[in-house]
Amino acid sequence: MLGACVSRWGLTGLPLRLLNSKTCCPTTQLYQSQANYSPNKCKDVEYKPIRSVLVANRGEIAIRVFRACSELGIRSVAIYSEQDKMQVHRQKADESYLVGKGLAPVAAYLSIPEIIRVAKENRVDAIHPGYGFLSERADFAQACVDSGIRFIGPSPRVVHQMGDKVAARQAAIEANVPIVPGTSGPVTTTEEAVNFCREYGLPVIFKAAYGGGGRGMRVVRKMEEVEELFRRATSEALAAFGNGAILSRDPDTLKCRFLAIELETLFIFYERDCSVQRRHQKVVEIAPAPNLDPAVRERMTTDAVRLCHHVGYENAGTVEFLVDEAGRHYFIEVNARLQVEHTVTEEVTGIDLVQHQVKIAEGLTLPELGLDQSKIKIQGSAIQCRMTTEDPAKNFQPDTGRIEVFRSGEGMGIRLDSASAFAGAIISPYYDSLLVKIIAHAGNLPASAAKMVRALREFRVRGVKTNIPFLLNVLENQKFLTGTLDTYFIDEHPELFQFVPSQNRAQKLLNYVGDVLVNGPLTPLGTDLKPADVEPQVPPVDSAQKLGGFREIITEQGPEAFAKAVRNHKGLLLMDTTFRDAQSVSSRHPIWRIGAGPRSTSPCDSCTNVRGSVWRKCDASCPNIPFQCCLRGANPSGTPVTRNGSLQFLKIAGFISTGMDHFRPPRGWCSRGPAIIFWLISARGPNIRAYTWLLADELVNSCTHVTLRFKDMARTVKQSGARCYRGMSNDITWSPFTYTMTSGAGSGSMLAACNAGAD
């Protein structure tokens, strides 16, 4: 199949072999057959600059247009459905707006009134349709024009004529372009489909009359399948394009090359070979078409230009042809839009087709942009692969979910066009499964294939399945490397579906480590003996005996005396954090009986608690040990907690009314008044000493009583760093604090700090 692209000033055609031509931007060479269609003969169009563009699409094509607009200094506007509110294309535009609220996911992007409303309310100058959705809907193009908004594409009349496959077929007949045998008009009933199959025999192709991309297409090989496949094709076409009309074709030329010619206003951008297809969906595209007979290219180009000239085609488009083994070409259709595989044409010509589309919509001609047919040259060979979230081992079943790991293949000669390709991205079941378009460009086809293989092998995608194994098999096939391609390439090579399972070693190792950390080791123990269940022996305590402690100093002499007593204490005091987790532990262990004995006589300056209901029970068991309340500056989700919010928590939990002794506020609090304030400083080493001392002096001046706690959460403080706090101000107490003793590093730092004079 061959496709030809046409622009405001001309059209071009391509060799068949399954080539398709697109009408997008100026093409690479103006053949002699086009000499009668000079781009200088185009009609006069008033130049009117475009300052803002809305893209009526989603995903990677929306981002592709946004980038072109950014380089041109044009404001970009995105639309999104309710299901796409977290999609990247929203963030790549200067502005984004919701459309189709309450509608189905696809219907939201087909809502013409909604899109026009957003464009008018936000002073949009032009709308780019991308591909798919409304890109070939003449009523959408007309709605744009009627609203005073420029449509970046052909005129509504041409979109109607070319978007309607029946009208396009009739136009080809009028232009004397050879066509594939088929129905003269759309088929709307199963009876018509059955009659056509009986008249022409099988196999027959059912194809959507108002759309492309393989949607709404079925191949019928048995009469008993006609009605069912017709219903499926109609339903799919209706859902994708808003119109379920179907064409029937005789597929005698099915085993052909599928070629497309990129045209823009009679400038030729050469052909693309799109023969490698699966289920009528293009998988790999090549530019230029390998091993294409120049005579076939000439005939196709001539016919493509003649057809586009006949209909008065403007802006970009694609004319698609089939080329059989005898070199005969057959017109299939015109895609009056930008095609998915326009990227390979851009790579081999070095021309930005999207930017030229915008400039043409402004009223400029390609010669006015400094583009001449003689300047359009083919440079090397380019390949595009469509990486999709499909599992080739399960008949390409679409996969959805969260991408857990994503590493891309990059480097010289590799271009990536994507939208949702990153770790954490959610792959939606509502839209096309395209994840990334990978484009490789090199001096020839084998070199481009080698770059593509290298890039694909560099990719690491975990969480969803992709078709990378299948793409690698295609690219390493010798027939592919020699450029001997046709539409049966995949069907005739079953070895393409033989895959080596991914080892996925790193992900498996991480899963194993996580499982062991959470659930414990799976390795059998070296003994059959069960762990001992030891009941802790709590020494007897005379409840009538009055025990002295730091809590007594606070309650009887006040916080100032407490701070002084801590500073004057010759020994080392400890803060017990057992009760910090008492809320979850107390239901399983006799923690209260333990606390009633040794803790009440241990050299503790405080115990840490979290909730009032828990700490009051602790207070009854350890009446002579001060309790400390730890306040966080943010909750576990990272949301900041205000000071007023923390104070309300203290009141509700009962800490203030019942007499909590210590408060450890978040960094940034500096409370005044008779209270013991613990201030946490993240310790980093000797270089922080000057800053720490300066902060300590400020805290002493602003707070009545301060204890500095140096927090080494990640074991980054070495022993030399812990010693740097020697000589701390005598007006405050200070203590080191660590979460881990792994490998003894934390223990060593704590001991060094103690030797340096920690309280």
From TrEMBL:
Occurrences of domain ATP-grasp (ranges): 169-362
Domain of life according to the entry: Eukaryota
User: What are the residue boundaries of the Biotin carboxylation domain, all occurrences included?
Assistant: 49-495
What are the annotated GO cellular component locations?
cytoplasm
Entries under InterPro entries matching the protein: Aldolase_TIM, ATP-grasp, ATP_grasp_subdomain_1, BC-like_N, Biotin_carboxylation_dom, Biotin_COase_C, CPAse_ATP-bd, PCB-like
Keyword annotations from UniProtKB, A to Z: ATP-binding, Biotin, Ligase, Nucleotide-binding
Signal peptide (residue range)? none
A GO BP annotation: gluconeogenesis
PROSITE patterns according to UniProt: ATP_GRASP (PS50975), BC (PS50979), CPSASE_2 (PS00867)
Which Gene Ontology molecular function entries are recorded, alphabetically? ATP binding; biotin binding; metal ion binding; pyruvate carboxylase activity
Full protein name: Pyruvate carboxylase
Instruction: Name the lineage.
Output: Eukaryota, Metazoa, Ecdysozoa, Arthropoda, Crustacea
